[in-house]
Amino acid sequence: MIKAPPKSKLKTKRPANVCLTPLKRITKTSWKNPLYNAEFCEVIQDMYARGETDVEIAVNLGVSRETFYMWIRTEPEFATAVRAGKAASHAYWTKLGKRGAEGDQKVNDKIWHLFMRNCHGWDKQNDVDIEPASKEQVNEIKVQMDALIAAHQRDV
Questions:
Q1: What global pTM score does this model have?
Q2: Is 62 left (phi over 0), alpha (psi -120 to 50) or beta?
Q3: What values do phi and psi take at 52, rounded to 5?
Q4: 25-81 tens-digit pLDDT
Q5: DSSP string, the chain
């Protein structure tokens, strides 16, 4: 028969009820009743500017996702800060996508696209649908390109 370890060895250390941010330590009273702090409005701007999501920011503030969204509904200043922050986050991810498209940075396009869909509201309706060209269209483009190349070679 296997014996269970003594109860004293089963205790796990709980994480401190403290949020660590790059600006300062922000404490709150408890997980059951976290207090809103107006300083959060400035703190979240830096997090959003680094492309963090609502969930990541809630965790960094030391609150649940539900509390985070409740503050958006009940604290107008916080709601304004979140809207501005989401614009900064969208800009961050857009720039990342552009750097990836230009070859300046290695970016997993599928993950980037998934992130933009899930976090910034992209959906299939916003995607550009490109229909394949017909053989006639391809041949017409080839003729036009050949004419442009021939004209360029004459001028050079």
A1: 0.57
A2: left
A3: -70, 155
A4: 444 444 555 788 889 999 999 999 999 999 999 999 989 899 999 999 999 999 999
A5: -PPPPPHHHH--PPPPSEEE-SS-EEE-S-SSSPPP-TTHHHHHHHHHHTT--HHHHHHHHT--HHHHHHHHHH-HHHHHHHHHHHHHHHHHHHHHHHHHHTTSS---HHHHHHHHHHHH---TTTSPP-PPPPHHHHHHHHHHHHHHHHHHHHH-
